[in-house]
Amino acid sequence: MAAIAIVIVSHSKQLALGVRELAAQMVQGQVSIAVAAGIEDPENPLGTDPIQVYEAIASVFSDDGVLVLMDLGSALLSAEMAIEFLPEAQQQKVYLCEAPLVEGAIAAVVAAAAGRDIHQVMAEARGALLAKATQLGVSPLSVVTDNIEAINPEFPTKEIRLIVSNRLGLHARPAAQFVGTAARFQSQILVQNLTRNTGLVRGDSINQVTTLGVRQGHELVITATGSDADEALTALQALFANNFGEDNLALNSPPAFHHEVTPATHGELSGIAASAGVAIAPVVHYQPTHITITEYHVDEPESEWQRVQAAIHTAKQEIQAVFSQASLQIGDTEAAIFDAQLLFLEDPVLLEAAHQRISDHHINAEAAWQAVVDEVATSYRTLEDSYLQERVDDVVDVGQRVLRLLAGNLPANLHFDEPAILVATDLTPSDTARLDPTKVLGICTTSGSATSHSAIIARTLGIPAVLGVDAQVLHLADGTLMALDGESGKAWVEPESHILDLLEAKREAWQTAQQEARATAHQPAITRDGRQISVFANIGSINDVQVAVANGAEGVGLLRTEFLYLDRTSAPTEEEQLEVYQAIAQVLDNRPLIIRTLDVGGDKPLPYLRVGFPEANPFLGWRGIRFCLDRPELLKTQLRAILRASVGHQIKIMLPMIATLTEVRAAKVILGEVQAELNQTGIPFDAAMKVGIMVEVPSAVAIADQLAAEVDFFSIGTNDLSQYIMASDRTNPRVANLADALHPAVLRMVQQTIQAAHAAGISVGLCGELAADTLATPILLGLGLDELSVNPQSIPGVKQAIARLSIVESEAIVASALQQDSAVHVRELISTSVIPPA
């Protein structure tokens, strides 16, 4: 810990905490930073309190000096008054500094961490506007910087030249690392940006290094003169070689910004940047089979209607298969696209319209179905809402699937023998989900948008995509070499060698980042300040568990057992379930396995377990534990299978949709009955097996303290919890944006649940989609979760995100997030916090 301390005085507590968090991340906790900000008045919290400032100074006092930075007005008066409360000997060691609050704090902590004395730290703080002024091309009114000292002739000057490869160049954090490293050595370090033709600046000054304006691709000259020059240059070179510890490209994320690789060149095409990454490969055209429909008269309309029903039934099975595969490959969030397609095929209005058209007009099934789908698609296209307009793709996709089945056509062939860039007019979500990323290296289409479902799936699969390019690409011969950059939205036909060199370098950096994520996936996820967070997998099949373990899962936080009950005419037997649970536990090799009991009913009905009446609000209906308690034999069979599988494995039971204490106790009674029956028949099981619940209903949050006394662990299901808290159906596009798990209302509920669990001494995890969103990782860590459970392919990214954070930083972000007024502002807060880039 550096000896010089910093105190931040501000009228706004939120501002001060934000500045402290920003500054602390620059030096990773090496400098003591205290905050004195705001006043204890809920009506008017803005202000400063001299006593608070005095306490802050006293809490971090150092004989080496305390630097006090203030915002404005009474902050200075409060600071001056606070010093008078200190003993006279200490007053001499406290320095009030007029430097700008944000920039000054960052410059001061970096200088303090580098071992500068109090006067050098003050000089750095005062010079903090230099970098910003240089960037904007204006002269700061008063800038104090240390001059470059005369070179000591006793030692020869050593020099290295480096190309900066990390994505954002020497932004604040890498600049702080550079300065901190340079300051460790006796030698004088000087830096020059050759690309921008700057002058030489001191390498141990954060202000001067930042003025170099170093971006990705810039070439620097670094010189060192002194007894340890070689060691200094080696240490600095290592920082650059390691990209300052940053991933070079955010994996599976939509392009956040665009930059051109080069000015327009021969064969260059501009389009929409839809999925980041670089692809260089021969072109292969994909032309979906066009289904020609002929309308004709039929004498037996009822048999035509039966053909439609049969095609829809098969289409549902196909989509369910796509959904299952997509869940495994791209995760639950994106796979929900196909869940929506299933709902489309169950739409009674659509089905009645098709039936009526066949009956009234005596026309064939194909013609009637096509007409009805066209009407729905047209109604979507005329909507003003652009989000809903883009759902036309899904309507057409599912419509074409049924039409293909009616026409007896085989599915389109999307199997490629050799790696290629797929060129097409457009791709449906179903087509995109079937692509093999090892064969389809890139996608180039003449239509589409970055927010379409096809683009979202391409991003999740990690396939670079440029959409909306000129239709001339459709006339290229198969085998023509193409290159595309999904970040800049550009494609090149038969690219020139210098373009290929640039793109190859970019592609290698991207692939390296992916490999690093995979390489670290099998290590524990430990924050920078030493807290280990368990990262488990959400799975829904035996295949999923293999992928989960390969991706570094430390266990299964949620086994959805619904897959055992689907696509069959009766419930699975005890033996069938036992076999599956044992097989999954075997693959996990004594890692934890949390099995959620059957969660169907309401919006997920089983054909052989009909409710017997339609539900107006299925999300508020007969589902989860309510359904199972009403069908105790069904629950007993499942519990017997789980208990029998528990021998020699680390299996836990989790109950879904718990809303009351009565439900937990009733389920535990049934579990006790099953355990007694197994004991009587001498069948072994783990008598100490833990029982937990899903917290996904607001009432469970309200009584979390009581529930915590009844169970061994909580798992928060933010998908359902969000929609129940916000009273918004997440499958209804008009209100789905309200059901945002980052809304402060939801976050406060999550906080309340965690506090109740920890007060009772039980662990708490989170298995909703929020856990896989690395933007939310600092929030989840700051709230105090013990474990996160995500779809298998998200594990490497989540582990990396955890390793980049500290609990202290995360808690500061949470404190501010809980006070925001919307999910939008929470997202803005997180993205503007200085967290190492993903």
Question: What order do the helices and strands come in, and which of them pair?
Answer:
Elements: E1 2-10, H1 13-27, E2 31-37, H2 50-60, E3 66-70, H3 74-84, H4 88-91, E4 94-97, H5 101-113, H6 118-126, H7 129-136, E5 157-163, H8 172-182, E6 188-193, E7 201-202, H9 206-211, E8 219-225, H10 229-241, E9 268-270, E10 272-275, E11 278-285, H11 301-330, H12 332-345, H13 348-361, H14 365-381, H15 386-389, H16 392-407, E12 420-424, H17 429-433, E13 440-445, H18 453-461, E14 465-467, E15 481-485, E16 490-493, H19 497-520, E17 525-526, E18 532-539, H20 542-550, E19 556-560, H21 574-588, E20 593-596, H22 625-630, H23 632-645, E21 651-655, H24 661-680, E22 691-695, H25 698-702, H26 704-708, E23 713-716, H27 718-725, H28 744-759, E24 763-766, H29 777-783, E25 787-790, H30 795-803, H31 807-817, H32 823-832
Helix pairs in contact: 1-5, 1-31, 2-3, 5-6, 8-10, 11-12, 11-13, 11-16, 13-14, 14-16, 19-30, 20-21, 21-23, 23-24, 29-31
- Termini separation: 27 Å
The fraction of residues in strands falls at: 15-25%
Helix content: 40-55%
Note the main sheet.
8 strands, mixed
From the alpha-carbon coordinates, what is the Rg to the nearest angstrom?
Answer: 31 Å
Structural class: alpha/beta
Number of helix segments? 32
Adjacency order of strands in the biggest sheet: 9-16-15-11-12-13-14-10
* Number of beta-strand segments: 25
Mean pLDDT value: 84
User: Uncertain runs with pLDDT below 50, 5 residues or more?
Assistant: 139-147, 248-265
Q: So what's the overall shape?
A: globular
